Amino acid sequence: MFALSRWSVVAAGLALALWGPMAMWKGWDTIQIERGWSLFIAGAIALSGGLVTLALGAVLSRLDHSIRIAERRSVAEDAREGAAARENLVSRLRPVVESAPIEVDRYTSGGAVYVMYSDGSVELRGAGGARRFASVAELKEQVGF
Predict the structure, then answer these.
(1) Cα Dmax for the chain
(2) Residue 95: what are its φ and ψ, rounded to 5°?
(3) Spatial distance between the Cα atoms of 64 and 60, rounded to a whole number of angstroms
(4) Tens digits of residue pLDDT in 122-145
(5) pLDDT tens column, 22-53
(6) CA-to-CA distance for 12 and 24, rounded, in angstroms?
(7) Nearest 10 degrees: CA dihedral of 14, 16, 22, 25?
């Protein structure tokens, strides 16, 4: 639609720019009567209006070109953003590999060794073997502290 209006402006400007000098030429022969002056003035106005309209057509053409470049850049940026969003979504949907908990603290009491881990769990190592508890509260509950 924009290209059609751009070309119609150029066509109108070209028509005015061509008609203006023809009207001026035709009015020149009869310039001594009122009709000749009117035709000459109308031709001069048409010529100048045609040139201005041609300039506006050139501006519209340049504007159309700039809009198309901006649209191409926008599409390319949207594609890049879409790829980044897809990668982000895929990385969030991948299963999370949990690393083994790290030993945070260790202490000995009454012949038993208590090992605390980074995930909050506690391991009780004693003469009867090792037992793992999910938390200190569970250890207290089961051992009876």
Answers:
(1) 131
(2) -65, 140
(3) 6
(4) 998 888 888 899 888 888 888 776
(5) 888 888 777 777 778 788 888 888 888 888 88
(6) 18
(7) -130
